[in-house]
Amino acid sequence: WARENRAGWDEVLDLLPLGLELEPQQMSMLRGPLSALPDSLASQLIQAAARRAGLRIGPVAASRLLRLIRKGDSGQRADMGNGLSGEIAFQRVLLGPEPSAPTWEVEITGESGRAELDSWHCRWSREPAPTRQDRAGLVAWFDPASSYQVRPWRPGDRILPLGGTGHRLVVRCMQDRRVPRRDRAGWPVLSGQGTLVWVPGVMRSALALPQAGEPAVRVEFTRGSPGSN
């Protein structure tokens, strides 16, 4: 009976427009459709979604997450117990392990290389610079005359946006790109000579731009679970 009950709720997840997205040990759902459902139904769906993501929460934690869904503001978090936390991220609710502060730092050296940074993967090589660079891409080219380091984002970091005027707080750029709060602490940034020059997937700086066709340092980031690339 318990197996049939779980299987039934798992099927309901696919019948309703909940926008369920799964990552290793993390899931997210659209906030609006869940808010419109009765408490008992929403609670069961939250538990079913958590099971599908490999997470285990009971009715008490599901009710706590539902209260956050109904009343919380974007960026607000709640402890779900057992090392899990819930968070409102714009129009979605996220559930996953409580994020820990990263400590990694990588020097971009040599003609080529790679580094694993928790859920991020970084590769670099030497390559002629293109005519145009994307402001919010995951690949960027830099003047080879400088040295570069990769580190986690820190509150208070600022960047001079490509094509913009004046420095902006990186957290504002992240909000514009709808980066959930739980992801920001482990988000990589690239600095050159102590100045921020790139936030991958968020903002390219107007600094350290190489001339088109000239030799450059090409840096690329991808995301995924550790060891997936």
Query: Which bin fits the share of residues in helices?
Result: 10-25%
Largest sheet: 5 strands, antiparallel
DSSP summary, beta strand count: 16
Distance between the termini: 40 Å
What is the overall pLDDT average?
A: 90
User: Which term fits the overall shape?
Assistant: elongated
Number of helices: 6
Supply Rg: 21 Å
Q: Would you give an account of this structure?
A:
By secondary structure, the chain is an alpha+beta fold. It has six helices and 16 strands. It has helices at 2-15, 31-35, 39-52, 59-71, 170-176, 181-184, and strands spanning 21-23, 26-30, 77-81, 84-89, 92-97, 106-108, 113-117, 120-128, 139-142, 148-152, 158-159, 168-169, 188-192, 195-199, 203-204, 215-223. A hairpin with a 2-residue loop joins strand 3 and strand 4. Helix 1 crosses helix 3 and helix 3 (39-52) packs across helix 4.
Could you give a short description of this structure?
With 229 residues, this protein is α+β, with helices and mostly antiparallel strands.
